[in-house]
Design a protein that fits this description.
Helices cover 34% and strands 27% of the residues. The protein is α+β, with helices and mostly antiparallel strands. The protein has a single domain, classed as 2-Layer Sandwich (Heat Shock Protein 90), CATH 3.30.565.10. α2 runs antiparallel to α4. The relative contact order is 0.20.
């Protein structure tokens, strides 16, 4: 299959998360991803998109933010990229919760990091780039591997 790419622009609102999950589920079925890998991709994109909306835009006081969802399909992988102009944030530069952090009761834990950990562990590969004043969170799921 030749590489196929589509780009969709979404308003930075939590209301877009469900349509994105539906789209990614449909695409997962089209490329014959397992349900487990499709769920992992949806979960990862949902977590990072939520961070973009809440932290990248809302907390910065940006009320008219948007982000692009770029979906690339080729012979052996699906690459989904969230591109936003919100507050720069590299999830790979921040420490993930440790086992000790996770053993603390939920109500006593500091907020943050869990969504990034879930996102990074839910796909085959997670990358981040910042260029031209835009964040790019890149999720890669390979078709040719067995499930996690």
């Amino acid at each position: 299959m030749a590489t196929q790419t589509q780009t969709i622009t979404y308003e930075a609102s939590l209301d877009v998360l469900e349509p994105i999950r539906k789209l990614l589920t449909q695409i997962g079925q089209e490329v014959e991803l397992s349900k487990k890998k499709t769920y992992g991709l949806c979960l990862a994109v949902d977590e990072i998109a939520t961070n973009v909306i809440r932290h990248g835009y809302e907390e910065a006081g940006i009320t008219d933010g948007v982000f692009d969802l770029i979906i690339k399909k080729n012979d052996n992988q699906l690459v989904v990229t969230i591109v936003d102009a919100g507050t720069p944030f590299n999830p790979l530069e921040h420490n993930l919760p440790t086992e000790q952090d996770l053993s603390i009761p939920l109500e006593e834990r500091p907020i943050g990091g869990l969504g990034v950990m879930i996102a990074r562990q839910s796909v085959d590969e997670f990358k981040y780039e910042f260029s031209n004043n835009k964040n790019r969170n890149i999720f890669i799921v390979r078709y040719d591997q067995t499930d996690y």
